[in-house]
Amino acid sequence: MLLKNVKPVSNTHKGKDTVDIRIEEGMIKEIGSGLKAVKGEESHDLKGAYVSPGWMDMHVHLREPGFEHKETTKTGCDAAAFGGFTAVACMPNTKPATHTRDVVEYIIKKAEKLPVDVHPIACVTKERKGESIAEMADMKEGGAVAFSDDGDPVYDSQVMRVALEYSSMLGMPIINHEEDLALSRPGHMNEGKVSTRLGLDGTPGIAEEVMIARDILLAEYTGGHIHVAHISTKEGVDLVRQAKKKGIKVTTEVCAHHFDLTDEEIDRTNFNTNFKMHPPLRTQEDVDAMVEGLVDGTIDAICTDHAPHAIEEKEVEFMYAPNGIIGLETAWPISNKRLFQTKKLDLQQLMDKLVYKPREILKLEIPEIKKGATANLTFFNTDEEWTFTPNNVRSKSKNSPYLNEKLTGRAVGIFNKGQLVLNELR
């Protein structure tokens, strides 16, 4: 296969030069200018699109097993490919929960022929109940890349201490959903001026920050690696910033919607439940802090927390709707708008958040653009204007706050596991 007229962007390429890439048997055979297709070779002109090593989203919910009415491994990977991701790490709040090796292996098996690498994140505790540690070492041998009870925090401090000690021996991070339940429930949005105006119970930022502070202290005490999931508050970012300065093993991620949208959207859209997620949309000050954290390196990775819900689950009164939105298909245009077009980050810095840091945190092999490397590639642009209509949703669910929005920048396609996927708008 010959992929023509692409501009490489990586930690060694700045996206300035246009090249052609020849692939044979899933490997990069040749990189050069003006390459000619040989007899029997499939050729695609990508018309000046950028090409980077394949992106990774380290926080998604594929819903399988147990909730296939929301999403399946196949439809989730379709959404990932449309969004430019060649790899995802999926959370364990499935049914049964991913708390035993057989479930880990089942998830890997379901994805083995798909063009997206699926890396299961296994439970910290049995059945995600927060009471006793799951069989971590066995699940690592089965293919788990990290541990989390996402959807719920590991609430018991002693359990978290033991979890960090065990995960340290295995060289893997604990990814915690940072939420003090006593402070947060029964909140339906961010606690503040907007929630007061709308008459909705709110979840204050302090509920997130208290747990972040606890986990940082436990990581310092145990020497373990804590990864703060979907960070959303200004003070939370500052806690991570100070911990990193002290040399504590803490990393974090931010969802694209948390550096784009605020709680005012709930009022503006008249309680549209596609703006309900957890952690909730916060204030403009928090949004600005997310961008600042990405710029100064406090926030390591961009993720989506892709959380599909069926239409009948979301089309209810706001307080009864489940938390979560889909995000794989729209992460790039949001990042492009808020970070690249505003010149907060250049393309190389953005690739660090989308390619390198997620895999470094999970200790996965990082793809490269060089002769002899396995072809694991994402093709994208920064200037194409398009509309995210329901027809363009590849996820099985359509619970996105960006439906029918005009977006700029699109993932053109991916190449991974010997498979080329070119995305066409519908």
TrEMBL record:
Protein name, as recorded: Dihydroorotase
| Role played | Catalyzes the reversible cyclization of carbamoyl aspartate to dihydroorotate.
Record-linked NCBIfam families: pyrC_multi
Q: Where does Zn(2+) 2 bind?
A: D150, H177, H230
- Originating species: Gracilimonas halophila
Residues annotated as binding substrate are H61, L62, R63, N93, H309
Name the catalysed reactions.
Answer: (S)-dihydroorotate + H2O = N-carbamoyl-L-aspartate + H(+)
Q: Which InterPro entries match?
A: DHOase, DHOase/Allantoinase_Hydrolase, DHOase_cat, Dihydroorotase_CS, Metal-dep_hydrolase_composite, Metal_Hydrolase
